[in-house]
Amino acid sequence: MRAVLAxxxxxxxxxxxxxxxxxxxxxxxxxxxxxxxxxILTAGAxxxxxYALYAAYELLAxxxxxxxxxxxxxxxxGFASYACNxxxxxxxxxxxLRLRLYTARGIDAACVARVIAFNLMTNWSGYLLVLGAxxxxxxxxxxxxxxxxxxALQATGAGLLAIVAAYLWAxxxxxxxxxxWRRLTIELPALRIALVQLALSVPVWLLGAASLHALLPPxxxxxxxxxxxxxxxxxxxxxVPAGLGVVEAVFIASLGSRLxxxxxxxxxxxxxxxxxxxxxxxxxxxxxxxxxxxxxxTTPQRGHGAAGQIATARRRVA
Length: 318
Prior knowledge:
- By secondary structure, this protein is an all-alpha fold.
- It has 12 helices and 2 strands, in the order H-H-H-H-H-H-H-E-E-H-H-H-H-H.
- The protein has a domain at about 40-215.
- The radius of gyration is 23 Å and the shape is globular.
């Protein structure tokens, strides 16, 4: 298995190297400098709303896991976790950072695992609904690079919507509500909560696509949406943090001939700055502030350590 993965990563690196050599980077830099400020601000607003919804994911998950922490603190943990998750990978963001911040506040690891599992269900149920509906109803003409017909895309969309319907049915009717996979416990929420999950996660994927679409030359939003959702799965399989290089390769292969490679690459680079690097900076700052607050609270104050207790006892004796 490791040999197969090694071959796959070598082939991916070769593909990215080939794509990179064929690009006109000077032209892309010129196109990047010419991006309208209004487009960048619009993309930033969409991405900001997207991360606000990620914080709402965390609040909903914490409520399901019965975590008794202040809401602003939970929202900050969610924001920082997703900012690091999308840019640095799930092991650091979704898992490592959450474990650090929650366990430092007295929440056990099993409870944190339930939060992570619930967030995964929230995020990917919305993904399936958005992609299924886009493939089935938007009637997008696939680019030649996809090598798949419109009918096959619609059939795929119908299958994805059937999975979402099955999930909602299970939340409403299933008798068995809990599954265990290794040390992870997955619990089905009630139907009302599942609908809230969709209400939060569907806009996340739409806003992410809207952020990129605002930076692109005139392009069909449905095609941008489907391409971005497809690249998300490829990035998940490849496990490259933030899909670095993979997203660009997918978009250039799919839309480069329609939009022009240089303007497309400029938009993708700006999207990385707006949707990944800026939130990552804020997320790391939020993590540092929460760590500093925790250490300040746990550091013994003057007069409260052992020496302070001895001094207090002496005063009482006197």
